[in-house]
């Protein structure tokens, strides 16, 4: 399975990095990202599990990244975030941020559900938010995902949705 192959570096510069596993991943200093990651092997998140994942995403918000929106769905998660600068210089990398969220939540979920094995697919889909139009489209997509999926009548009714009060 290609999922286990190491990342092949494509290009790295002072302000950006491009690498590829199965999907290309572009990181540019100061960028905002729309990120989606999925559960492994049809793993479905219970309401209690969704709370664990939301708490994991919120835990590092303001420390490693600015979190603009987060929706925890039955089998996937959407995030809109911007990495923050470290106290000692460079900004946190997107792969490091995703590892923090996925690793912490996976360990908690494995204990909660009394199971072993993969909780998340190892790779995530990430995309640089390019402009205001893209920003609004992604924010509306994340906020509306629980409604479109039939999980809530309105975004405000869905407890596993976070939207920051002030955005871009």
Percent of sequence in beta strands: 25-35%
User: Globular, elongated, flat, extended or rod-shaped: what is the shape?
Assistant: globular
- Derived structural class: alpha+beta
Distance between the termini: 39 Å
The unreliable regions are: 1-13
Q: Let me know the largest β-sheet.
A: 5 strands, antiparallel
Q: How many alpha or pi helices? A: 3
Known CATH architecture? 2-Layer Sandwich
H/E order of the elements? Answer: EEEEHEEHEHE
Verbal overview:
The chain is of the alpha+beta class. It has a single domain (9-163), classed as Transposase IS200-like (Alpha-Beta Plaits), CATH 3.30.70.1290. 30% of the residues lie in helices and 26% in strands. It is built from three helices and eight strands; from the N terminus they run ββββαββαβαβ. The chain has helices spanning 47-59, 94-113, 132-148; strands at residues 8-12, 16-20, 24-28, 33-38, 65-72, 76-83, 125-128, 161-163. The strands form two sheets. The chain has a five-stranded antiparallel β-sheet with strand order 7-4-6-5-8, with helices on both faces. A three-stranded antiparallel β-sheet has the order 1-2-3, with no helix packed on it. The longest helix has 20 residues, at 94-113. Mean pLDDT is 84; it is low at 1-13.
């Amino acid at each position: 399975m290609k999922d286990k192959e190491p990342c092949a570096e494509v290009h790295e510069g002072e302000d950006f990095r491009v690498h590829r596993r199965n999907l290309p991943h572009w990181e540019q200093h100061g960028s905002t990202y729309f990120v989606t990651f999925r559960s492994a092997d049809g793993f479905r998140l219970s309401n209690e599990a969704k709370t664990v994942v939301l708490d994991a995403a919120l835990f590092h918000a303001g420390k490693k990244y600015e979190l603009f929106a987060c929706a925890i769905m039955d089998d996937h998660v959407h995030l809109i975030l911007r990495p923050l600068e470290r106290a000692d210089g460079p900004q946190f990398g997107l792969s490091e941020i995703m590892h923090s969220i996925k690793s912490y939540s996976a360990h908690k979920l494995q204990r909660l559900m009394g199971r072993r094995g993969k909780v998340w697919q190892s790779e995530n889909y990430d995309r640089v938010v390019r402009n205001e139009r893209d920003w609004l489209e992604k924010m509306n997509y994340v906020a509306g995902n629980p409604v479109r999926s039939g999980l809530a009548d309105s975004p405000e009714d869905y407890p596993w949705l976070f939207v920051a009060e002030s955005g871009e």
